[in-house]
Every structure is written in structure tokens, then in C-alpha cells.
Automatic annotation (TrEMBL):
One of its GO terms (molecular function) is protein-cysteine S-palmitoyltransferase activity. It comes from Glycine soja. It is an enzyme of class 2 (transferase). The chain crosses the membrane at residues 6-28, 40-59, 79-102, 114-132, 204-228, 269-288. Its EC number is 2.3.1.225. One of its GO terms (cellular component) is endoplasmic reticulum. The lineage of its organism: Eukaryota, Viridiplantae, Streptophyta, Embryophyta, Tracheophyta. This is S-acyltransferase. Belongs to the DHHC palmitoyltransferase family. The keyword Chaperone does not apply.
Length: 392
């Protein structure tokens, strides 16, 4: 029983670490131990490590560690791409080694040996397509066309020049400090892809997320069916009820069945839990980006809008407070004051509660237009090319 509990604890710890690392900054985890673990994993542990290296080995070793950090985090490098290939290759190898012996089985036909391989190949192709496709690089030749495609809203985007590229900066674009280029409709720089996600390859990135979520879902369900088939083929339930005298009810059978599965098929269960956790994370990440696409917003713009709305809210609150102070001073100077019920004054809503800041996204032109802009970017359309030819 010790091994089984060790596997359960290992799975729970792995789940907590993965969720904390990837989702610790989400608002729902604010103030929780998930956020604290995320802070420790992303900043605290590394900070303590740098201090330890500096104290034991001196500043030269600290500079060496910082140079490695610069290469891994601040410049393009294939490190995470290699890790992705290793993860998906090793996971598929263990699935094939531990599960293919039971396929075909009671619930699965032999075709799943080939469909699983095909699913992984398609996932890798989408990964390569996203990694090596042009995200929408802006240069002197196409900058005018991107400016006409994405007009300035004069709210979060105004006419300005990129201080690095020395060319006009179209709306919705950003200069990526890692790739050292301006990208149209910039969303974010993805370390896993070693590439920016922008106007041209957002569609590939979304397809990558969706397909890998489906792969994880497919793998989880397939392993569940493999284990269910083994239970049926080996007649485990009959043995437990007939030979061991266990009551034929879910509450009595479940602990014994789980114990038998953990003892006989622990590798398959660990793979199933791993795929389920990664699948849930991918589902959340895909849902977040799908919402952005449906509202024609980018990850970069969410931060810009948040800063703008916070500034507008503070400005309006200041104006409301000033107006309330002005009215209070005017009321004090008047000769007669109307009597005001204390209960009414207690329940009266503060003027600051009426302060509302509305997001005015001029690029959100409706569900179908927003989806079309992701699937068919402006730079791939015939009108964009024709305008380019006319201007040249």
C-alpha cells in the first residue's frame, strides 16, 4: 500500500507544481498558496540561487549565470523547442510501451495504434508551422500597408515611430525586444515556439493549442478505456465479489479496484494523470486566447487597456471627489440646511460608486469579422497585395 500512496502523493505534488507555475498569476489564485508557490518558482528560488552562487563562488560565477539567463530568456534560442520535442517524444514512447500491448482490447480497436501516431505527427507539424512562420514582420516596404490596415484609435495607439527600427509604428504592433523586430498585431513572444505570435501566425498558434488539448483528451480517454478493458478481461470485479466476499457496490468495490490498478498499472495511471493535467491547462490557455480572438484583442493590448482604464478611473474619481468637495463647501456656506435623515444618509450610495470606465475597442467589429481577421490576416488578402502594388 506504501507504493500506491507514494504514487498518489507524487501525482498531487506534480499537479500543484504545474498549476502553480503556469497559472499562479491568475486572479482566482491571488493571495493563495498557489500564488506564493508561483512566486517562489519563478523568482524566489532563482534569487536565492544567485545569492548562494555569489556568496560561495564569487561575482564572476554570478555573471556567468546571468549570461546564461540572458541567452535563455532574452535572446532567441531553441531550448524550449527541444524540451517540447523531448516531452512529446518521451510521453508517446511510454504510452506506446505501456499501452499498445493491450490494443486491440475490450473497448479499443487496433486502429488506435496508428491514429495516436498520426495525432502526434500533426501536433508536431503545427508546432513547426507556428515556430518557423513569419508572425507579421514590419519593414519599410510594408509599413504603410499595415498602417492603413490598422488605423490608430488615439486611445491606446497613436501615431509614433519605433525608436529601434526607425520606421512609423502601425497600430496594434510592438517591437519585440527578444526577436529585435516590429510585429504586426503583436500578441506575445512565445518561448516554446521561439517566435513571436502576431498577425500572420495567430491562427497556427490557436490550432496548435486546440490540437494539443485534443491529443491530451484523446490520450486520457484511451488510457481509461485500456484500464477499463483490463478490468473486464481479467474479471477483477467478479474475483473481488466472489472470492474475496466484497459487497457488489461502488463504495465497497472502488477502493479495492483503485488499489489493484495502482499496483498493476501505475505507469498507465501516471501517464493518464499527466495528460489530464496538461489537457486542462491547455484548455484554459486556449479558452483565454479564444476570448481574445472573439473580441479582437491581443495579450499585449489587455495590459494597455488595463493601464488606460485604471488611469481613466482614477481621473474620474478625482473629478467626482473634487465636485463633491465643492458641493460640500457650498452647502456649508448656505444659511439654511435641509434636514437629512440619518438612515437615508447611511444607505446613500457614494458618488464614487457611479464611476464607470467603458472599454472602447474600435478593432472589435463583431464575431464573424474578428474570426475572419484571425483566419485570414490582412497581409494575406488580395486587397493588401493590390494596395502594395499600387503604392510601388
Amino acid at each position: 500500500m506504501g507504493v500506491e500512496w507514494l504514487l498518489v502523493c507524487h501525482g498531487l505534488v506534480t499537479a500543484v507544481v504545474v498549476v502553480s507555475f503556469l497559472c499562479g498569476r491568475w486572479p482566482i489564485f491571488e493571495g493563495t498558496f498557489i500564488q506564493r508557490i508561483h512566486y517562489f518558482l519563478t523568482f524566489g528560488a532563482y534569487d536565492y540561487f544567485l545569492r548562494f552562487v555569489g556568496a560561495v563562488f564569487g561575482p564572476k560565477c554570478t555573471d556567468a549565470v546571468l549570461s546564461v539567463e540572458y541567452y535563455c530568456c532574452d535572446r532567441p534560442n531553441p531550448l524550449l523547442q527541444i524540451i517540447y520535442i523531448v516531452i512529446i517524444g518521451v510521453t508517446y514512447y511510454f504510452i506506446a510501451k505501456s499501452c499498445f500491448a493491450y490494443i486491440p482490447g475490450y473497448y479499443l480497436s487496433g486502429i488506435h495504434r496508428y491514429t495516436s501516431f498520426l495525432a502526434v505527427v500533426v501536433g508536431i507539424l503545427l508546432f513547426l508551422l507556428t515556430s518557423f512562420s513569419d508572425p507579421g514582420t514590419i519593414n519599410t516596404e510594408n509599413v504603410a500597408h499595415y498602417i492603413s490596415a490598422y488605423p490608430y484609435d488615439n486611445i491606446i495607439y497613436s501615431e509614433k515611430e519605433c525608436s529601434t527600427c526607425k520606421i512609423p509604428k502601425p497600430a496594434r504592433s510592438k517591437h519585440c525586444s527578444i526577436c529585435d523586430r516590429c510585429v504586426a498585431r503583436f500578441d506575445h513572444h512565445c518561448g516554446w515556439m521561439n517566435n513571436c505570435i502576431g498577425e500572420k501566425n495567430t491562427r497556427y498558434f490557436m490550432a496548435f493549442l486546440l490540437w494539443h488539448f485534443l491529443i491530451c483528451l484523446y490520450g486520457t480517454v484511451a488510457i481509461v478505456l485500456v484500464l477499463a478493458g483490463r478490468l473486464r478481461e481479467l474479471r477483477v470485479v467478479d474475483i473481488l465479489t466472489v472470492y474475496y466476499g466484497i459487497e457488489n457496490s461502488f463504495l465497497d468495490l472502488a477502493p479495492n479496484v483503485v488499489q489493484w490498478l495502482l499496483g498493476s498499472y501505475n505507469t498507465q495511471i501516471l501517464l493518464m494523470v499527466f495528460l489530464a493535467i496538461v489537457g486542462m491547462l491547455l484548455a484554459g490557455f486556449f479558452g483565454y486566447h479564444a476570448k481574445l480572438c472573439l473580441t479582437n484583442t491581443t495579450t499585449n493590448e489587455t495590459f494597455k487597456w488595463q493601464d488606460y482604464m485604471d488611469w481613466q478611473r482614477k481621473l474620474k474619481e478625482a473629478n467626482v471627489s473634487a465636485e463633491a468637495l465643492k458641493q460640500s463647501i457650498g452647502g456649508m456656506s448656505s444659511e439654511k440646511q435641509p434636514l437629512l435623515s440619518k438612515w437615508r444618509a447611511f444607505f446613500r450610495k457614494s458618488p464614487l460608486e457611479d464611476v464607470v470606465v467603458v472599454k472602447n475597442n474600435v478593432y472589435d467589429k463583431g464575431f464573424f469579422h474578428n474570426i475572419q481577421e484571425v483566419i485570414s490576416p490582412f497581409s494575406t488578402r488580395r486587397s493588401f497585395t493590390q494596395n502594395k502594388l499600387k503604392s510601388s
